[in-house]
Amino acid sequence: MILMIDNYDSFTYNLVQYLGQLGEELVVKRNDEITIAEIEQLQPDFLMISPGPCSPNEAGISMEAIQYFAGKIPIFGVCLGHQSIAQVFGGEVVRAERLMHGKTSTIFHDGKTIFKGIQNPFVATRYHSLIVKKETLPDCFEISAWTEEDEIMAIRHKHFPIEGVQFHPESIMTQYGLDMLKNFIEQYKKGR
């Protein structure tokens, strides 16, 4: 079962719909409607942190959940979720030089884990004004995707099953979004 922390974002249900197409059981909880203890009781196989209209500091339980469950269950963050992952581990989230709301970018990647078998480069849709500052990304992460302008578009923890993407895999204008989500589940599932 996948637990999706919803950061009050309209894109959350597009993500849920995509994951449903993959045959995954989903539970969706708003970021102020669940506690760490309740997450533990649910015993999710995966934790996903949705996009949202705010910064990681206003994302309810998102950062606390990432911190608590890091290394215990696989975690995947999209947009705000990705920024929250970076910030939990000491990265800095700053205002992007370019505002990207509904704009597409060419994304380059390392071909591993979620990007296995994905065309390189591919086109993805971005909706964000904040970004993870490259110089502050902790050593425990590798940059797994980037733009031509060298902006961080995805990160992967070197030791824990944690990944984040700045772009929106669930957007209709993102190529291979469903494949990336499927790759995440396939990569990190435990003998299911």
TrEMBL record:
This is Para-aminobenzoate synthetase component 2. It comes from Thermolongibacillus altinsuensis. GO terms for biological process: L-tryptophan biosynthetic process. GO terms for molecular function: anthranilate synthase activity. Keywords: Glutamine amidotransferase. InterPro entries: Anth_synth/Amidotransfase (IPR050472), Class_I_gatase-like (IPR029062), GATASE (IPR017926), TrpG/PapA_dom (IPR006221). GO terms for cellular component: cytosol. Residues 3-185 form the Glutamine amidotransferase domain. Gene3D superfamilies: 3.40.50.880. NCBIfam families: PRK07649.1 (NF005799), trpG_papA (TIGR00566).
